[in-house]
Design a protein that fits this description.
alpha/beta, 40% helix, Universal_stress_UspA, two-stranded antiparallel ribbon, 23% strand, 12 strands, UspA, Rossmann-like_a/b/a_fold, Universal stress protein, Rossmann fold
């Protein structure tokens, strides 16, 4: 259990596409600023047939070949990081199970603080909801997640938007925001957003964080909005100003499902070129999955004869 917020181990989920390339670039710049190590992670699933004789893997030769190809491509990325950035604190992990099981197993074994994954800005909202790998990682990873749009060019986070819209784990998210700002010598834009029925509590928390920023050496600006449509307000502010990073609390993600037809997911998650960092409290994540469960496809066949 961690007593303070830090970023010492960064896991980069790659699928060797252009969106992954940008995620790797962001990761190496963050790692250099935080003196962190990088884990390059790739996963592929095996396929099984189940009959009365038991579980049998299909296509072992293909699996071995896929593993070798993945290992080769990951090593090429490692070589590039060493040659281009003189960065050597990098290792690789290849998972061979469901994406989320392999990912969380690696997060646990390597004590990863942050997962960085690329996100395509060209996909429609339907694809994002129903099963893109980046959305799976966002919803199920057992640590904070940074989504990097493939058309993003931000490698340094000089201007950071930090919405204050819910109280759960607010100070932990704020500590992460200050850490990012300090490492980037950046500015925090504190945005309080409250519906009328929560005005007193959220306003009090917002004022407390503003006082904390005033006592720090971090440059900041602040504003407060009373609105029942938090998603729309964040979308407006992010479009009116050029931010390098938006830091959100994932605990509120369930509430965003009501905003799928509004501007928040369309403009912020699915259309924006601004990286989005979703804070997750890793101490509360308890997703457990049997490694034998849902691995590839299971086909039950009749016993021959």
């Amino acid at each position: 259990m961690k007593d303070f917020i830090s970023i010492k181990t960064i896991l980069v989920a790659t699928d060797f596409t252009t969106r992954s390339e940008q995620a790797v670039k962001v990761a190496v710049h963050m790692a250099q600023r935080h003196n962190a190590r990088i884990i390059l992670f790739y996963n592929f699933s095996s396929f099984y047939i189940i009959d009365r004789t038991g579980r049998q893997m299909v296509g072992q030769e293909s699996i071995d070949e896929n593993f070798k190809q993945a290992e080769h491509r990951l090593n090429l990325i490692k070589d590039h990081l060493r040659q281009q950035y003189n960065f050597t604190n990098c290792s690789t992990v290849i998972g061979n199970n469901t994406l989320i099981y392999s990912l969380n197993k690696t997060i646990d074994e390597e004590s990863a603080d942050l997962v960085i994954t690329g996100a395509s800005g060209r996909q429609g909202i339907k694809e994002l909801i129903l099963g893109s790998s980046s959305y799976q990682i966002l919803t199920a990873a057992n640590c904070s997640v940074l989504l990097v749009p493939e058309d993003s060019h931000q490698l340094n986070f000089k201007k950071i938007l930090v919405p204050v819209r819910m109280l759960d784990k607010l100070h932990e998210k704020f500590d992460l925001s200050k850490l990012i700002a300090e490492k980037n010598k950046g500015t925090i834009s504190l945005l309080g957003i409250s519906p009328e029925q929560q005005f007193t509590d959220i306003r009090r928390a917002y004022i407390g964080l503003r006082k904390e920023l005033r006592r720090s050496h971090i440059e900041y600006d602040s504003s407060f909005i009373v609105s029942n449509d938090k998603a729309l307000e964040i979308s407006k502010v992010s479009n009116d100003s050029e931010f390098d990073l938006i830091i959100l609390n994932y605990q509120d993600e369930e509430n965003w499902k009501s905003f799928f037809s509004e501007n928040f997911l369309k403009r912020i998650i699915n259309r924006t070129s601004v990286p989005l960092l979703f804070f997750k409290d890793s101490n509360q994540n308890n997703i457990k999955k049997d490694p034998e469960e849902d691995t590839g496809y299971d086909i039950t066949l009749p016993f021959p004869g």
